[in-house]
Amino acid sequence: MKHTISVLVENKFGVLARVAGLFSARGYNIASLAVSETLDPTVSYMTIVVDAKDEKILEQIEKQLNKLIDVITVTDFTKKEHVERELILVKVECSDQDKARLESLVKKYVAKICQRKENTVIIEAVGELEQIKQLLEGLSKFKVKELIRTGKIAMA
Amino acid sequence: MTGAQILLECLKREGVEVIFGYPGGQVLPLFDKLYDSDIKFILVRHEQGSAHAADGYARATGKAGVCIATSGPGATNLVTGIANAYMDSIPMIAITGQVKSHLIGNDAFQEADVTGITRPITKHNYLVKDVKDLARIVREAFYIATTGRPGPVVIDIPSDIQMQNTEFIWPETVSIRSYQPTYFGHPGQVKKAAKLISNAKKPLLYIGGGIITSGASLVLRELAEKIQAPVTWTMMGIGAFPASHKLSLGMLGMHGTAYANHAITDSDLIIAVGARFDDRVTGRIDAFAPKAKVIHIDIDPSSISKNIRVDIPIVGDAKNILGELLEQVKKLPDTAEWLKTVEGFKKKYPLKYSKEGSKIKPQYVIEQLDEATKGDAIITTEVGQNQMWATQWYKYNHPRTFISSGGLGTMGFGFPAAMGAKLGCPDKQVIDIAGDGSIQMNIQELATCVCNKINVKVFILNNGYLGMVRQWQELFYKRRYSHTCISGPDFVKLAESFGAVGIRVTKKEDVRPAIEKALSIDNTVFVDFHIEPEENVFPMVPAGEAINQMIEGLA
Question: Are A73 and A99 part of one and the same domain?
Fold first, then answer.
């Protein structure tokens, strides 16, 4: 099962390596990872989506993260109300006859076309996981050339 | 002051008495200042020896051990020693030189990414980027290494930082917002645990190295006596509870006593303190202590519920929590029947070995050593059969008297660790129980011992084999002894060539006199015992078996 965990860490060099190293050394899977500074520049915020087979592994992941000296707090969002978003960029082949269909699809979801070239467009979308999933399903009827996702970020 | 001076001043203020190390290009500025320092420096013959010596010093004294190596190969040679200390939660500070700041990342001569390499085997590590941070970093490093669940900390210092000048400011206190170990148990949990203890019929204390780290031996003994529960321990817990005590069950697990393994299998309440249910202890997990509820006391939350299901977890320091339990357990459990059952196990499944034949039995050597030292020496071991016999046949009654590589199982640990222990406890006899294979892994430290008059004794149980691997090949690989027959040097001549004393023993009747002689010599002594070559360590739980399914030795 996928869990969203937020990790507040000291904003020091090597912290990302410590966290990533912990996951690889103990055989845990990271589905996505987003890192950035916070309002307090000495603190960074990581949103990690982990694939944990069971509760026991999830408990170990939290405990092991907490054991890292540079980790300040660990929160499992799965257990509490929170807002989560992901940003994606999709490059789609777009002939003149596709144009109208594509634009109505983009309108239906909270998405927009941010670049148009001769035969392609780049679509940008922000949303919850389910919305993103539906948009991608809709787009699968077109020729998708490239897809980039930021990974989830979450806030409680 | 220069970075090098600041470092040495910090070490002095942290109470460091001895440093083990080896010089090199990127620690030249540091060694130049060390030349004038009054901290004792022991020049080892291989950096790995310095890490194990610092580790042995820490285990014998309870203080952080310190080692120094240069960049690149110096630092990578420390890696096994650091990993060893990490697995056994030993406080250690490893200081490494690094190439000059502006060369980092350039594949400079003798450059290695030491913080990268040691990240998974340290409690924490630092690369010093500004000389102004150095004093704070050293202070934090000692604090982190010695508090909570202890462990090694690496400080990697570029050589230019060692030379730069800044004002020395000693940080009076340490405060790390993201590191706040829990020392006191949750009162509600302690109360629940006390209730379980009161209602138990077959309680058993299962203890580990955490008792020794925490200094909880006395309160453990009080609790065991109060609730009349038998006590078994992990290898790291040896010495935490007196082996000669009537409630003692000895070590449990793969080569533990059969009666400890039967007792824990039969128990209805395990009180685990400072132990982590390692696979060498539990054997097959689903068959481990099937009838028991489990109280698990540990300072490291991640040790709890990692390997086995726990009913009452209590995070905190063993000494505090055992003290709390001692007060909280008002109604005492009636364990008279249980103690009778356990006595029965002891009678039915004693530790034993065949005393027949003219060859020297390794168990006999250790029994004789126990008698000759009255159980009062510090014993270090290598890894393998020598180590297991040392756990089984010497009676350890005090903490910090048994020093052995537990989690990592590092051959070559015992000899340099004995050096460290002897420097920490100069008035004690320190004996490394070794195999002829293991001793060859760090034998170069003989020169360190002789030069510095570190008079440790090394008892080589010489069977011409890598004995433990050979034992597995005998039992599980149809006696196909693939590359486990190992030749060695003439250990007597070798010792003599270094200026130490060598004694060879080939007859049983010469064992005791040789031990007495070795202990009386004021020099490093190698005693080469030629033992029964195919003697095995029993009992033994085969890998993946339940711990009460042991292979017994010959009667």
Answer: no
Let me know whether A64 and A88 are in one domain. Answer: no
Strand partners, A132: none
Q: What is the CA radius of gyration of chain B?
A: 24
- Beta partners for residue A121, in sequence order: A92, A116
What pLDDT is stored for residue B60 in this prediction? 98
Q: What is the pLDDT of residues B311-330, one digit of tens each?
A: 999 999 999 999 999 999 99
Distance CA B450, CA B443 (A): 12
For residue B196, what are its two tokens? 């379980």
B-chain residues within 8 Å CB-CB of A66? 301-302
pLDDT above 70 as % of chain A: 100
Q: Which residues in chain B have their CB less than 8 angstroms from residue A57's CB? A: none
Task: Classify B292 as helix, strand or coil.
Answer: coil
B-proximal residues of A, 59-78, CB under 8 Å: 59-60, 63-64, 66-67, 69-72
Q: Which of residues 107-146 of B touch A (CB under 8 A)?
A: 115-116, 119-120, 123-124, 127, 144
Chain segment B266-292, per-residue pLDDT in tens: 999 999 999 999 999 999 999 999 999
pLDDT band at B554 (very low <50, low <70, confident <90, very high): low
- Residue B323 and residue B222: Cα distance in Å, rounded? 9
Is A25 found in the same domain as A92? no
Rounded to the nearest 10 degrees, what angle do helices B336-348 and B258-266 cross at? 150
Return the closest-CA partner of residue B352 out of B538, B492, B203.
B538
Interface of B with A in 172-191 (CB under 8 A): 176-179
Which residue from B421, B416, B433 is spatially nearest to B382, judged by alpha carbons? B433
What is the DSSP secondary-structure string of B44-78?
A: -SSHHHHHHHHHHHHHHHSSPEEEEE-TTHHHHHH
CB within 8 Å: A66 and B124? no
What does the pLDDT look like over A123-134, one tens digit per residue?
999 999 899 999
Domains for chain B: give ranges and CATH numbers: 3-163 (3.40.50.970), 187-348 (3.40.50.1220), 362-530 (3.40.50.970)
Element (H, E) at B340: helix B336-348
Q: Does A23 touch chain B (CB under 8 A)?
A: no
Together in a domain, A75 and A111: no
Contact A21 B119 (CB under 8 A): yes
Instruction: Residue B137: list chain A partners with CB under 8 A.
Output: none
- With CA atoms as reference, report the closest residue to B330 among B495, B420, B195: B195
**Mutation site, B285, B302, B304, interface A, largest A CB count within 10 A:** B302
Mean model confidence pLDDT for chain B: 97
Residue B82 in 3-state DSSP? helix
- Out of A32, A63, A79, a domain closes at A79
d(CA B122, CA B469) in angstroms, rounded, equals: 29
Range of the domain at A136: 83-155
Contact across the interface for A17 and B127, Cβ inside 8 Å: no
Is residue B41 within 8 A of residue B19, CB to CB? The reply is yes
Residue of B nearest to A10 (CA): B178
Instruction: DSSP for A80-100, please give it.
Output: S--EEEEEEEEEEE--TTTHH
Contact B138, B170 (CB under 8 A): no
DSSP at B165? B
What was the ipTM of the complex prediction? 0.91
> Per-residue pLDDT averaged across A87-114, rounded?
90
Chain B hits for A72, CB-CB cut-off 8 Å, are 177-178
DSSP-derived 3-state class of residue B211 = helix
DSSP string, B379-420: EEE-SSHHHHHHHHHS---STTSEE---SS--TT-HHHHHHH
Burial of A11 by CB count in 10 Å (0-12 exposed, 13-18 middle, 19+ buried)?
middle
What's the pLDDT tens digit per position in A13-29? Answer: 999 999 999 999 988 98
